[in-house]
DNA sequence: GCTTTTAAATACTAATTAGTATGTAATACA
DNA sequence: TGTATTACATACTAATTAGTATTTAAAAGC
């Protein structure tokens, strides 16, 4: 990677860390410059303004990072009940750069920024859509294999699971990671009921 | 109500509306003053600073408003499966001052402010705690009446329901209220499985 | 090797921010 | 009726904000 590309990536990854912990609006450009040791000239050479950096961060850091944890594990799913639950367990308890007290970076940004920035909203919706789609396909696969009842609405299940994740991430911010295990238990009960 | 108490209440209710729509940090004191027609002197006479106003808004506007919709309907619950579902239906589809695109004011504030302000976090946790407690009591009541299986963990159910609400409110911000009906359908499936 | 383009450093600006200092009506109370 | 106290109004300040203008160094292309 060239030196220029390096500073660009560095700005994005450090900005991600700060924004993940503090929120987008609470993270000032000066704050980013102080922690990256990058000068203002360099920052505005690589990004037209703060929002353009934020959008790049969503597309280049958050999207691929979350996609790998949320969508990829479902792509060759064999048993939706186990696979969806296991995907959720890993995301909540195992992914190292996610911390209960800071929630989920994608969920946080939807909450904070979707009323304020249409571009952010659409970029984050893309992730949600693809995750829901992967869950839906997994459930439909389960209907074919017979693990899932034929009358189950795969799209509804996907919506419910995504909403549940988003919600438990929010709860975890105020109550800590203890609620994650509770959620996983009840998610299992919900999923079992689909069979 | 005295004139002074009137301006105080007016500041809180208008601040609530602005903060509900824009978020806490995106709502400046000047923004509040402009929409209330209250002067800066009046504002800082009633509140030591912005955060003290925010805390008063949580305790005096958000808490009682949400309590009436979330907790009160469950206090004399007869059938948890129906009552919890109906409570959720009313909250999502009927409460007039809540709009899908703005989410839930309590959920929004937990998301935005719980990492930044301990007082906000605790004030909002109080609401969550009491809501979970009401759900738990309702489920335990159902276990006595026989509507709910004896092996169901009421606390887990409460956690799962609260997380689901929080999550679907977040989804609704980006996707609109269509997902509310889907969520309600799947919530019903989850609740039925408890019996 | 010279020139052009890329990448970045420095110094500035205009707007907005929360909050203060001070002054003045209105109200309560003695 | 005089006097506190309450409830505001106005004008200011210091810090922070995103963003710009200008200069300079590094690299690439010829």
UniProtKB/TrEMBL annotation, chains A, B:
Residues 5-65 form the HTH tetR-type domain. Gene3D superfamilies: Tetracycline Repressor, domain 2. Pfam families: TetR_C_13 (PF16925), TetR_N (PF00440). It comes from the Bacteria. Keywords: DNA-binding, Transcription, Transcription regulation. InterPro entries: DNA-bd_HTH_TetR-type_CS (IPR023772), Homeodomain-like_sf (IPR009057), HTH_TetR (IPR001647), Tet_transcr_reg_TetR-rel_C_sf (IPR036271), TetR_C (IPR011075). Coiled coil: none annotated. Residues 28-47 bind DNA. PANTHER family: HTH-TYPE TRANSCRIPTIONAL REGULATOR YJDC, TRANSCRIPTIONAL REGULATORY PROTEIN. This is TetR/AcrR family transcriptional regulator. It comes from Mucilaginibacter rigui.
């Amino acid at each position: 990677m060239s030196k220029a590309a390096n500073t660009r990536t560095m700005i994005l990854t450090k900005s991600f860390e700060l924004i993940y912990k503090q929120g987008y609006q609470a993270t000032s450009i000066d704050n980013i410059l102080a922690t990256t040791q990058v000068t203002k000239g360099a920052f505005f050479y690589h990004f037209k303004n703060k929002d353009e950096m934020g959008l790049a961060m969503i597309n280049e850091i958050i999207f691929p990072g979350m996609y790998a944890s949320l969508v990829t594990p479902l792509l060759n799913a064999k048993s939706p009940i186990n696979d969806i639950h296991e995907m959720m367990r890993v995301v909540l308890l195992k992914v190292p750069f996610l911390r209960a007290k800071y929630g989920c970076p994608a969920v946080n940004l939807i909450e904070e920024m979707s009323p304020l920035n249409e571009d952010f909203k659409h970029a984050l919706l893309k992730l949600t859509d693809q995750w829901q789609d992967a869950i839906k396909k997994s459930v439909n696969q389960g209907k074919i294999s017979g693990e899932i009842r034929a009358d189950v609405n795969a799209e509804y299940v996907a919506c419910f699971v995504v909403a549940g994740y988003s919600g438990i991430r929010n709860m975890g911010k105020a109550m800590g990671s203890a609620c994650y295990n509770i959620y996983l238990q009840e998610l299992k009960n919900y999923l079992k009921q689909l069979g």
